[in-house]
Design goal:
The protein has 149 residues and is an alpha/beta fold. It has 6 helices and 5 strands; from the N terminus they run αββααβαβαβα. A 5-stranded mixed sheet has the order 2-1-3-4-5. The longest helix has 17 residues.
């Protein structure tokens, strides 16, 4: 784990924020090298799958020329939703590092089940709350601005 990658994910989240998107950013690292980044563009693209993690997975797959992202670690500002957790497991990443847990406590229970080892895929490890103050501050500012608009 290297928190400089979390800081990079936060910079990606700020890009989403500046576009009026929920500020979630993602960085994918392979052998200590950033190979992909992404941030939410769901509103801009009017597409439910345009989450930061999905965008970063698509980019990383192109870089590695493989849908299998073995030996990759993911740094994301907010704990993944079930859709993104499933995609990350299917991509076979090693570890997901999250800046902040999801405010829905059921989310962690759901994604923990998704990330468990099964017949086809290894377990994906997850670590939460690595940048709580920074990410929480960004989220609060976003939602305050949204309510005041």
């Amino acid at each position: 784990m290297n928190l400089k990658y979390m800081d990079m994910a936060i910079e990606e989240a700020k890009k989403a924020f500046s576009c009026g998107e929920i500020p979630v950013g993602c960085v994918i690292v392979y052998k200590n090298e950033v190979i992909a980044t992404g941030y939410n563009i769901k509103e801009k693209e009017k597409c439910v799958t345009k989450h930061a993690e999905i965008i970063a997975v698509e980019k990383a797959s192109k870089v590695l020329d493989n849908w299998r992202l073995d030996d990759c670690d993911v740094y994301v500002t907010l704990e993944p939703c079930p859709m993104c957790a499933s995609a990350l497991k299917q991509a076979r990443v090693n570890h997901i590092y999250c800046g902040l847990s999801n405010s829905d406590s059921n989310n962690f229970k759901i994604i923990s089940e998704i990330l468990k080892k099964d017949k086809n895929n290894k377990e994906v490890f997850i670590t939460n709350n690595l940048a709580v103050e920074k990410v929480n501050s960004l989220m609060k500012e976003f939602f305050v601005n949204r309510r005041n608009s």
